Amino acid sequence: MSTVSRTLDSGARESWMATLELAMREVFEIMLSSKLEHPESSTENDLEFTAMVGLAGDLCGVFSFRCGAGAAAIIASKMLGVDLKEVDEQAWDAIGEIANKCADLFRSEIEAYGHTALLQQSSAAWVSLFRTFGIVVWR
């Protein structure tokens, strides 16, 4: 059995990136009652939390959601309805759930275009342990 892989052309990449951004905005508005905005500035060092969801099927790759510890705590606080000071380990679960929801909404959007993608279980980790790069491969 052989597998043929190719990367997305720039037009498809732009279209899918717009679809992904729309999915993320929708998840943030529904689950967190927040508008997703581009940061004014950030560095790799500011992004201590990473949640990843694997994609398999026509679309293969890894969806990664990255944020700082402060953002992860705010996300958990809003999702759980608890005071920001009460958030600790729940931040891991919260960003994992946000990543799952964003990836799932993106998956459902691309299925509308006739493509298939299956989601694999998410995981959350300290970015200092490793670096992740989202790679999308079109089969």
Describe this structure as you would to a colleague.
It is a single chain. Helix content is 41%, strand content 22%. The chain has 139 residues and is of the alpha+beta class. It has a single domain, classed as 3-Layer(aba) Sandwich (Chemotaxis protein chec), CATH 3.40.1550.10. Strands 1, 2, 3, 4, 5 and 6 form a 6-stranded antiparallel β-sheet that branches.
What's the SSE blueprint?
Layout: E1 6-7, H1 10-32, E2 49-57, E3 59-67, H2 69-80, H3 90-111, E4 117-119, E5 123-126, E6 136-138
Antiparallel strand pairs: 1-6, 2-3, 2-4, 2-5, 3-6
Helix pairs in contact: 1-3, 2-3
Question: Summed up, what is this model?
Answer:
The protein is of the alpha+beta class and 139 residues long. It contains 3 helices and 6 strands, in the order βαββααβββ.
Number of helices: 3
- CATH topology assignment: Chemotaxis protein chec
Structural class: alpha+beta
What would CATH call the homologous superfamily? CheC-like
How would the global form be characterised?
A: globular
The tally of structural domains comes to 1
In total, the number of strands is 6
**Helicity, as a percent range:** 40-55%
Rg calculated over all Cα atoms:
16 Å
Assess the beta-strand content as a share of residues: 15-25%
CATH architecture: 3-Layer(aba) Sandwich
